[in-house]
């Protein structure tokens, strides 16, 4: 049953006793307790590295024996990833690794929070007794991985967010056009209406500019992702050659995909509409982003001058000469069509891949965060779902 303590004994951690899982189950499934049992719950984040704690417990006691480790699914999508359970002078202690913290629960006594640091001190001071075994476990059994952001999904997410903001403005340049102020019976009301409408359209024009600037880059990031995932071993092993692939001119980079990458069933057809439309989109973006002068694309009116006297061929409205010009030159009404160009281009490239590889690429390209193994360069999806913040019960009593 254990005994009530006000402070941890000096040998508390040293006297942890391994319990067989069937005995743990029997302990937690006991019924008809006379009264609730007191317990202590502590959380650790930065106070001790979870990997150090895992290696220490594994080196000292072997694989996790807690019930949560037995019940976990055989993947990374668990609320509790590992758990050890030991018998102590107070009763039972569980040590569990979650997504955002390590949680310790001492069942059988209620300790003050001041004892948390003493518990940590005892654990860390015992590391040296198992240093070699900990190092062996870390080197031989733990795979070192790096999590990194998928640039393609980062850009796609940003574009989708801006598109949502733009769509929520619910603009229609044709229906939203306002008459000249002097044509209104209420000049003050017309002036305010112009001011309000101009504010909304200025926001929309900024969103449109940002989206159109990012769309070709989003497609480029997908091309780069294909190179990164599918590069042939001979290319990947040559660091300078591998890095040079990402510096190739875009039209060369696209056509080079089947030569530098595995999994392609055929060559890139430069005359395919999906490819031609994408490169047209790149040219349009360059004109927009770099301020290139193309009169046919930038013109909004034609007129005559007699000396310094303007002679209009036709009159335009204030709307047409101000907000109308702005939204046309940044393509406010074209963003959805241009997003479709990128989507069709991406689907075209995916369609050139072998079926098995295509499914793997789609799975990885859809994830915001990916992983690469440090020692082998192997790529993977480390977590199928976003990591959920979860905590074990913090109730002061255990009624199991």
Structure, explained:
By secondary structure, the chain is an alpha+beta fold. The chain folds into 2 domains: 17-145 and 389-398; 151-366, no CATH class. The protein is 49% helix and 14% strand. Helix 2 (50-61) packs across helix 5 and helix 8 runs parallel beside helix 16. Residues 394-400 have low confidence and may be disordered.
**SS-derived structural category:** alpha+beta
What is the tally of beta strands?
Answer: 11
State the helical fraction.
40-55%
Number of domains: 2
- Name the strands of the widest sheet in spatial order: 1-3-4-5-2-11
What value does the Rg take, in angstroms? Answer: 32 Å
Contiguous helical run count: 17
> What share of the residues does DSSP label as strand, in percent?
5-15%
Order of helices and strands: EHEHHEEEHHEHHHHHHHHEEHHHHEEE
Largest sheet report: 6 strands, antiparallel
What separation lies between the terminal Cα atoms?
14 Å
Weakly predicted, low-confidence segments: 394-400
Mean pLDDT: 84
Give the overall shape, derived from the CA principal axes.
elongated
Short structural summary:
The chain has 400 residues and is of the alpha+beta class. 49% of the residues lie in helices and 14% in strands.
Give keywords.
alpha+beta, 2 domains, three-stranded antiparallel β-sheet, 400 residues
């Amino acid at each position: 049953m254990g005994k009530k303590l006000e402070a941890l004994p000096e040998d508390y951690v040293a006297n942890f006793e391994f319990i067989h899982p069937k005995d743990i189950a029997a302990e937690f499934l006991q019924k008809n307790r006379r009264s609730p049992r007191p317990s202590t719950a502590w959380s650790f984040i930065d106070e001790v590295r979870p990997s150090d704690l895992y290696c220490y417990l594994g080196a000292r006691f072997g694989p996790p024996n807690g019930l949560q480790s037995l019940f976990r699914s055989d993947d990374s999508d668990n609320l509790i990833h590992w758990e050890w359970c030991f018998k102590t002078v107070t009763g039972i202690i569980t040590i569990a690794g979650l997504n955002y913290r390590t949680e310790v629960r001492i069942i059988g006594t209620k300790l003050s929070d001041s004892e948390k640091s003493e518990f940590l001190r005892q654990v860390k001071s015992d590391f040296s007794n198992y240093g070699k075994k900990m190092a062996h476990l870390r080197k031989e059994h733990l795979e070192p991985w790096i999590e990194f952001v998928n640039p393609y999904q980062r850009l796609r997410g940003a574009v989708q967010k801006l598109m949502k903001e733009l769509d929520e403005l619910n603009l229609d340049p044709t229906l939203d056009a306002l008459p000249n102020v002097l044509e209104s019976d209420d000049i003050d009301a017309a002036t305010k209406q112009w001011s309000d409408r101009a504010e909304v359209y200025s926001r929309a024009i900024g969103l449109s500019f940002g989206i159109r600037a990012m769309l070709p880059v989003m497609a480029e990031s997908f091309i780069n992702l294909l190179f990164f995932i599918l590069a042939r071993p001979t290319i990947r092993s040559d660091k300078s050659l591998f890095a040079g692939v990402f510096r190739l001119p875009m039209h060369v980079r696209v056509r080079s995909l089947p030569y530098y990458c595995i999994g392609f069933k055929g060559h890139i057809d430069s005359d395919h509409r999906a490819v031609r439309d994408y490169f047209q989109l790149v040219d349009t973006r360059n004109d927009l982003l770099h301020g290139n002068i193309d009169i046919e694309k930038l013109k909004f009116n034609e007129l005559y001058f007699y000396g310094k006297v303007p002679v209009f061929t036709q009159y335009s409205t204030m709307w047409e000469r101000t907000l109308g010009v702005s939204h046309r030159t940044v393509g406010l009404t074209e963003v959805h069509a241009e997003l479709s160009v990128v989507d069709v281009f991406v689907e075209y490239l995916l369609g050139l891949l072998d079926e098995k590889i295509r499914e793997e690429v789609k799975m990885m390209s859809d994830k915001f965060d990916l992983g690469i193994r440090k020692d082998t360069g192997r790529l993977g999806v480390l977590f199928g779902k976003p990591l959920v913040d979860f905590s074990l019960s913090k109730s002061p009593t255990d009624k199991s």
